[in-house]
Known about the structure:
15% strand; PyrdxlP-dep_Trfase_major; 12 helices; binds pyridoxal-5'-phosphate
Amino acid sequence: xxxxWLSSPHLSGHEQKYVQEAFAANWIAPLGPxxxxxxxxxxxxxGAGHAAALSSGTAALxxxxxxxxxxxxxxxxxxxxxxxxxxxxxxxxxxTPVFVDSELDSWNISPDAxxxxxxxxxxxxxxxxxxxxxxxxxxxxxxxEIQEICQLHDIPLIEDAAEALGASYQGKKMGSFGxxxxxxxxxxxxxxxxxxxxxxxxxxxxxxxARFLATQARDNAPHYQxxxxxxxxxxxxxxxxxxxxxxxxIDERVAQRRANFAFYERELSGIEGITFQPEAEGSFxxxxxxxxxxxxxxxxxxxxxxxxxALASQNIEARPLWKPMHLQPIFQDAPFYxxxxxxxxxxxxxxxxxxxxxxxxxxxxxxxxxxxCFI
Length: 375
Ligand SMILES: *Cc1c(COP(=O)(O)O)cnc(C)c1O
């Protein structure tokens, strides 16, 4: 039986046209017409003013923190329930990550816990420089409340929309809510450039500065002159060509991923003890990954590990939900605000195969494999 992957690249067939154009024009560099075109495509689609195409989502997060002046001794509040790349750049800048728990309506950062964290870090005399909210598995966080809290306390909001291209909240696309917004085009994301990312903002000066820093911070001089520390974070014109081909089909990809989720929900919601990542009123997830929670008290002792291992034995890849950052060895000393919501989601949650290129037969293999655990 062929392997069923969690989320594999799904090319449209149009990518090679753009890559070919780059070869024909000899634009084999981290700049060129595909980079410009990809940035335009992203701005138009997301409804953002400006975009810088970068080498990764991690690079975009790092530049976002630099642009906000995050440095030694500062505090950045970050959703705990996420991939480590959301938090690592805080440490690159010598700042302290402070982690915030999730809420159950979206599985993303809890507005209540965020408010408590801001007040208590400020009371400790900390300089709270930014908030990083994540839209996990493509599910929008509660942006209205989060924006209000950030405005009230005058703290800039960074949206980590790495998993959420194509998702929207109250009719507005994810990646357009923060002062600075991050996308990723890694190989397993909803669209891919093989590896890549972008920083989006309505503030043109931020994006110009991001491009400057991402190309080694060269001053305007005929020789190489530097007044600031620079980075090599730009996206290659070849990779950007792949991105342009992918942007032609982004809405189809979202529809396919949502159809996967609908299929799983239809097939599995009859099983006592299996629930799904909820989609609140006004939220539209891209369903990058379809996620379930398995409650062993209701399944007669069947855990998410029972299911994961049963699927693995049938050559089907499924994966536990993200392990929260406040439980990671590297962040064990970082402050944490909240209860144990993300911890419980991690203990009982499972991501099912979710690629937009899965066949109906493959999806059926997954649900049959799960149902067998309950016979
Ligand atoms: C993938 C991902 C990133 C990092 O993106 P890369 O392009 O892999 O550097 C950041 N945050 C989240 C939530 C992600 O899933």
